[in-house]
Amino acid sequence: MRIGIFSDTHANIEALTAVIDAYKTEQIDKYVCIGDTVGYGASPNECCDVIREVAAFTILGNHDAAVAGRMDYSYYYDAARNALDMHARQLSDENMEWLRSLPYEVRDGEVSFCHGSPVNLEEFEYIFSTEQAARCLEIWDELATVTFIGHSHLCKSFALTRTEVYEVVAEKFVIRPDHRYIVSVGSVGQPRDYDNRASYTIYDSDEKTFEFKRVPYDIEAAAQKIFDSDLEQNFGNRLFLGV
Predict the structure, then answer these.
(1) Buried b / exposed e along 110-137 (16+ C-beta atoms within 10 A)
(2) Which residue of 26, 166, 190, 223 pairs with 236 in a disulfide if CB–CB is 3.0 to 4.6 A?
(3) Per-residue model confidence (pLDDT) at position 232
C-alpha cells in the first residue's frame, strides 16, 4: 500500500491543492494528515473541507487543539494566538466538530501517526534533533516500526536501535529491520527549512520505502490573502522565504 502522508497545512489552500494534485500522479492508496490543518493562514475552512474529504484519518495538531478548545494556548505569542482566535470564529460548525473529534495518535499495523513526540502525546513536544529523538529510547518496546510526526515543519528522519539514534540524511530510504524510525514529514503550508515549496511524503508499506517530496505552489496568492486579512503580515512574508 502506498500512503500519502502530509502535515501542517496551516490554512494554506494553495499549497494543499498543489500537494493533492501532485499526489494524483503517485498512485496513492490512502492519505493521512498528521495535523495542524488550521493556524497562521487565511483559508481554514477550505483546508478542513479538503482534508476531511481525502484523508482516511487526520491526527490532532496543537493548533487544531487550540482552536477546538482542547488546550490552553494563552502562552502563545500574540500573532499566533490572534490567528487561532480568528479561525475559531470562522470555522463552520461541521469543521469545528471535526477538530474536536480528532485523535492524538493512530496506529495502523507497523506504523504510528502523531503530531509531536510519541513520548507525551498531549504535550506536542518537538523532535528535530538526535537528542530529542533519543528520548524515544525510553519507550522503545512501545514504539511502532515507523512513527510519522509533524509539528517542526522540517523534513527529518531518525533511525533508532535500542541504544543509539542517528539521523537518516536521504530523500528516499528503505526501512531496515531491527530498527525504529521517527520521521518528521515537513509542512504543506509553512515550510521552515528555507525551501518554500510545499512538503509531502510517500510511504510504501509493501516495499518498506519512504520518500520526501516537494512541489511549488502559488505563494503569491496564499500570501496576498493573508495581507488582505487581519492576520499578522509576516505570516505571508515567511511563505516566500520558507522559514
Answers:
(1) ebbbbbbbbbebeebbebbeeebbebbb
(2) 223
(3) 96
Beta-carbon-side half-sphere exposure of residue 142 (alpha carbons within 13 Å) = 9
Name the grid cell of 18: 498543489
Strands (E) located in the chain: 2-6, 30-33, 57-58, 105-108, 111-114, 146-149, 155-160, 165-167, 172-174, 180-185, 198-204, 209-215
Helices (H), 91-233: 93-101, 130-134, 219-227
The count of domains in the chain is 1
Q: How many Cβ atoms are within 10 Å of 25's Cβ, its own excluded? A: 7
Q: What is the pTM of this model?
A: 0.97
Beta-strand runs (E) in 21-86:
30-33, 57-58
Model pLDDT for residues 30-41, shown as the tens digit of each residue: 999 999 999 999
Q: Indicate the Cα dihedral angle 219, 221, 225, 227, nearest 10°.
A: 70
Low-confidence spans in the chain with pLDDT less than 50: none
CATH of the domain at 198: 3.60.21.10
Query: Phi then psi for 173, rounded to 5 degrees?
Result: -155, 165
Q: Is the dihedral of CA 116, 120, 121, 124 positive or negative?
A: negative
Contacts of 101 (CB under 8 A, 6+ apart): none
Residue-number span of the structural domain to which 57 is assigned: 2-241
